[in-house]
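Entry 14. Ran structure prediction on the chain below.
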Amino acid sequence: MIIINSNNISNTYLIYKFYNINDELLYVGITNDIKIRLKQHKQKKKWFKNVDKIYISNNTMSRNEAHIYEIYYIANSNPKYNIDYMNGGKVNFMLNDLIFEEYIVGKRRKINIDIVLNMYNSGKSIEDIASELGYSNEYIRIKLIELGIIKRIQKGNKDEQFEIFINCLKVLSNKIYFTIDDIINMFSDKYKCTYKTALKYYKEKFNFIIDKELENLGLVKISTNKEIKDKYNINVPERSYPKIIVRSN
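Output, structure tokens:
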């Protein structure tokens, strides 16, 4: 537990995130005492009963730094129960992603490591293992890290998910046109996760940077009309006008 005795003490704040059982982001906040903050939420927020998983940043920071990250994650991730900073627009600059670890309240039932290893070695993704066994993604990831099966992505290194996302854009850029759904499906296949998990990554990590990355590749999102549907031979219902991604020139 972190106890603050002076306003002059810095680097004592962390970011926390609440998720429900379906991995939907419920709330993002900052605190210098996670135990007290959880108690406050439990006493005051009716929706707290829906919290299934809690993640905290594994590095602390000053209150101002934490406040900047709080706005950054809320504005770009759209948590269900945050109110402040939701209507000011997305934050279009990039911050180094913080590393989050699951915060366990009380004792967790013992996990069968042999079952986890067999599932992982059979080609199942961390997300699918977690879903089948009833644990969080991060808990399974930590166990595999502890066993030396996978390596933790260190701060400052390129994020594996981001690399896969960019590679999907590059591959799809060879098509006459493609959609956001095509990106999510390809990411799901490359990252070996479910469509639902891939959609979550897109909404929380990639949605607010995609326009810039498309521009770097000479691509652009456009809204369709009858003329564009005919031009690109887009086979969708007559009254449907999806957004597509095409070459900007």
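The CA atoms of residues 12 and 60 lie 5 Å apart. Will compare against last week's run tomorrow.
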